[in-house]
Amino acid sequence: MKVVILAGGLGTRLAEETEVKPKPMVEIGGHPILWHIMKLYGHYKYRSFYLALGYKGEVIKRYFRDYLEFSNSLRINLATREVKDLEYSAEDWEVNLVDTGHDTLTGGRVKRLEPWLKGSTFLVTYGDGVANVNIKELIEFHRAQGKIATITAVRPPARFGGIIFEGNLVGSFTEKPQIGEGWINGGFMVCESAIFKYLEGDYSSLEGHALERLAEERQLAAYKHDGFWQCMDTLRDKRLLESLWQSGQAPWKVWEK
Predict the structure, then answer these.
(1) Which residues of 82-103 are buried (b: 16+ CB within 10 A; e: fewer)?
(2) How far is Cα 232 from Cα 238, in angstroms, rounded to an integer?
């Protein structure tokens, strides 16, 4: 099953980083967040990736062109200029890097991948969010619903702590509770090829056009994920993810190495 990662947005709210690189290439623990997302899918044996590139897509291309060289240990004979691998440790991934337009919207990016995806079920997610979603359970849920698409619904933690009142007095504080019933689309989607009928061109929004129409037609299922999920919209988000990784307590790291 093929995995589509939307990796072409501008990332304007993370301008401190994205002036020189696309948001999926912003690093957490020395690796682009894109790598973390791919490691999650790879853990569940989904290793055929289609990266929908746009803004500064050449940075992502260069990263994967150099990946093998910088991932392996090398022996270099300076006299003969011979270079040999001492060991091979790269992931078993097939990475397809597809230019989908600088200004193309999310639906348009998926639509441009139709030649490679039509006729099969495929996975879609955003290139700026990590989670500990069980991908196999997600796919099983999707198949059981028999709908055109399934989104992963998540409830992000509140940015600030809450207050519990006792009359006009503050009784206590709560530390960053969940936002009640505030379920949102967290990505990690499963789609049948029938979704392409809901996508018309570059300025088609996956969310505003396809998913809303599917919901109206009762063809959109929601897999509720109560575990960890975090997008990287701002520098604050990046620092949070970095601190979790450096502490050895990154919930999305479900792989062993």
Answers:
(1) eeeeeeeeeeebebebbbbbee
(2) 6
DSSP annotation of 210:
I
Q: How confident is the model at residue 149 (pLDDT cuts 50, 70, 90)?
A: very high
Q: pTM of the full predicted structure?
A: 0.87
The pLDDT score that the predictor gives to residue 253 is 97
Q: Give, in order, the Cα–Cα distances in Å from 175 to each of 103, 158, 159, 184.
A: 39, 9, 10, 21
User: What is the CATH number assigned to the segment(s) 2-246?
Assistant: 3.90.550.10
Alpha helices in the chain (DSSP H): 15-18, 33-43, 57-71, 106-112, 114-117, 135-145, 212-216, 235-246
Other Cβ atoms within 10 Å of 62 Cβ, number: 11
CB 46 within 8 A of CB 123: yes
Residue 186 near residue 153, CB atoms below 8 Å? yes
Amino acid at 103: D
Expressed in angstroms, the distance from the first to the final Cα of the chain is 23
CB 129 within 8 Å of CB 201: no
The phi, psi pair for 72, rounded to 5°, reads: -100, 155
Distance CA 63, CA 23 (A): 13
